[in-house]
Amino acid sequence: MSEELRHLRIFLSSPGDVPVERKITLEVIELLQYESQFKDSAFFEVVAWDKLGAGTAMSASKTPQAAIDAGLPTPAGCDIVIVIFRARMGTPLPFPEYKNDNGDPYYSGTEGEFENAMQASRLPKRPDIVVYRCTEKVLLDDEAPDYEQKLARKKLVKRFFDQFVDPKTGAILRG
Fold first, then answer.
1. Which tens digit of pLDDT belongs to each residue from 85-118?
2. 169: which residues sit within 8 A by CB, 6+ positions away?
3. What is the helix (H) or strand (E) element at residue 129, kind and residue range?
4. Other CB atoms closer than 10 Å to residue 17's CB: what's the count?
5. Phi, psi of 43, deg, nearest 5
6. Tens digits of per-residue pLDDT, 114-150?
7. In this structure, how many other beta carbons lie within 10 angstroms of the beta carbon of residue 1?
8. In what order do the strands lie in the sheet with 42-47?
9. In this structure, are residues 13 and 75 in contact, taking their beta carbons and an 8 Å threshold?
10. Cα–Cα distance measured from residue 161 to residue 152, given in angstroms and rounded to the nearest whole number
11. Is 7 helix (H, G, I), strand (E, B) or coil?
12. Per-residue pLDDT at 60 exceeds 80
């Protein structure tokens, strides 16, 4: 076997409400390396802040996103970017350090990572971007003390996905 293994970096981004989906994704990527079509041709490296040995020290002097940014390759620097959502966007980021092209704050580190990958998707060596949305119903207790906060988080996810469809025509702009 004289072929060299192709090294593929896979960036995994998600807020904290999808631990099961995140675990399944990591397991599937691990198993892919043993599939006949990949085992002699590709090596998959997962880039994720919570992956053992990832090189992301959560320093007390930095925000979590700043530590991730300093310790990991960017989504734009990876071959594949997987973004997973359910009912929350993630932890808000400090503004104005983290803002989009319009000068508005990102809803979360996950959104910022997605946008980093999307900006790179216009370049010759661009990452393939896969966005997964868990559509299982999330029930909110309207009598819970944090009901309004959870509802607001859920609405941010809806607003994020609304940008995938043209509001005037209903045309799908992103898959």
1. 999 999 888 877 788 888 888 889 999 999 999 9
2. none
3. strand 128-133
4. 21
5. -125, 125
6. 999 998 987 778 899 999 999 889 899 999 999 999 9
7. 6
8. 42-47, 6-13, 80-85, 128-133
9. yes
10. 14
11. strand
12. no
Q: What distance in Å separates the CA atoms of residue 32 and residue 166, rounded to the nearest whole number?
A: 35
Q: Judge contact between 161 and 115, C-beta under 8 A.
A: no
Type of residue numbered 125: K
Global confidence as pTM: 0.88
CA distance 120 to 97: 20
Q: Which of 118, 116, 53, 114 is nearest to 82 (CA)?
A: 114
Cα–Cα dist 58/66, whole Å: 9
Alpha carbon distance 36, 86 (integer Å): 32
Q: Which residues are 11's β-sheet partners?
A: 47, 81
Q: Coil, strand or helix: which one is 37?
A: helix
In contact, 112 and 49? CB cutoff 8 Å: no
3-class secondary-structure state, position 92: coil
Q: Are 88 and 146 in contact (CB under 8 A)?
A: no
**Residue 20 Cα to chain centre, angstroms:** 15
Kindly state the DSSP code that residue 115 receives in the 8-state scheme.
Answer: H
Measured CA to CA in angstroms, residue 39 lies from 30, 54, 124, 169 at distances of 11, 23, 27, 44
Residue 12 structure tokens: 């995994």
